[in-house]
Specification:
Blueprint: E1 8-12, H1 19-27, H2 32-45, E2 66-72, E3 78-84, H3 90-100, E4 105-107, H4 108-117, H5 128-141, H6 144-149, E5 172-177, E6 183-189, E7 210-213, E8 217-223, H7 225-231, H8 233-242, H9 247-259, E9 269-275, E10 280-284, E11 293-297, E12 305-308, E13 310-311
Parallel strand pairs: 3-4, 10-13
Antiparallel strand pairs: 1-5, 1-11, 2-3, 2-6, 5-6, 7-8, 8-9, 9-10, 11-12
Helix pairs in contact: 1-2, 2-3, 8-9
The structure holds aspartic acid.
Aspartic acid (ASP) binds next to strand 8.
């Protein structure tokens, strides 16, 4: 058997534009992490993806900030950034956190300082279109008295206004296996639109939004990050596989965990997972407006396929 036959890439609905770059990275003999990073960079630069990178949605104060992470299943090394402002490729900064620092997660000013030190590409992340959507939402949902006082005032009073799938969502997830059989996972998001400033979702949280372990497989999650953070979903899926579950059984067990949560903001979650052979399973906890389609390249001649996730019963 050709040792490269095991290569694969899976990307969620937001990641379609990056699939070719990820596939090409693997075909050139790149590592799984190279493929994940290459794919996510395309999505981050694409302003038509309004939930990732440039063109993404701002927080309640109108500021765009990005979260991203990578994890190397061969070594368990990981890097992540949260609340990163002013840099185009959060995923590359996350990768360099992993490569260069004794740390896993940098946030806010520290992440921006590091991005500057490594020569990451600065960018104006707020587009006119994103600002127009923000302004319209604020006009429709936030009382004029509250708006007039911004950036002062009590934002906690309006924090729940953005709790619905159309605003509270959007991440790109990539999972890959390279020609050596090494598994990698990556995420990137501009986060929940009109979120409370400083809010981190699950995308930069290793074990919640993503996890990779060569011995068992990998997982990446989208939608309500508060839930996957509470349930440690990505790590749980990999642990269920460690305990002997198939990739689908592992995802369904994680769905049961998510459904057992009570209180807080509860909404849909889509779980993307592969086992160590690259067999995929994508499961949603329920119907979603967006997010059931995903992209899969299995390393062979079939090419990149668009597939449909299962909605858990
Ligand atoms: N999980 C992301 C977050 O909580 C949002 C999403 O993927 O829909 O920030």
């Amino acid at each position: 058997m050709n040792e490269r036959q095991g290569m694969m890439v899976l990307a969620n609905c937001e990641g379609g534009g990056g699939m070719k770059a990820a596939q090409a990275a693997l075909e050139r003999g790149g590592a799984g992490l190279d493929a994940v990073e290459a794919g996510i960079r395309v999505v981050e630069a694409d302003t038509s993806v309004v939930t990732v990178g440039r063109g993404g949605a701002p927080d309640l104060l109108g500021v765009v900030s990005c979260d991203a992470a990578v994890m190397d299943g061969a070594t368990g090394r990981a890097g992540a950034v949260g609340n990163l402002r002013g840099f185009l490729h959060a995923v590359s900064v996350a990768r360099q956190v992993m490569e260069r620092l004794p740390h896993v997660l940098l946030v806010s000013e520290g992440a921006e300082r590091f991005a500057g030190e490594i020569g990451a590409e600065p960018a104006e992340m707020l587009t006119d279109e994103a600002w127009a959507r923000y302004e319209q939402w604020m006009r429709e949902r936030v009382p004029v008295g509250v708006r007039a006082r911004l950036p002062e005032g009590d934002l906690a009073k309006i924090a729940w206004e953005s709790c619905n799938e159309m605003t509270a969502g959007g991440t790109t997830v990539f999972l890959s296996i390279d020609g050596n059989g090494d598994i990698a996972a990556g995420t990137s998001t501009s986060g929940w639109a009109q979120r409370y400033p400083g809010r981190l979702g699950d995308s930069p949280i290793i074990g919640a939004g993503l996890y990779a372990d060569n011995r068992y497989g990998a997982c990446g999650c989208t939608h309500v990050g508060e839930m996957t953070t509470r349930a440690c979903t990505a790590r749980s899926v990999v642990l269920y596989m460690k305990a002997g579950a198939s990739v689908r059984e592992a995802c369904l067990e994680a769905v049961r965990d998510l459904r057992s949560l009570k209180g807080g903001y509860l909404g849909p979650v889509v779980i993307h997972a592969i086992d160590r052979q690259g067999s995929p399973c994508v499961v949603s906890t329920g119907p979603v407006v967006k997010g059931l389609d995903y992209f899969y390249w299995g390393g062979g001649a079939v090419g990149i396929e668009m597939r449909r996730a299962e909605i858990a019963a």
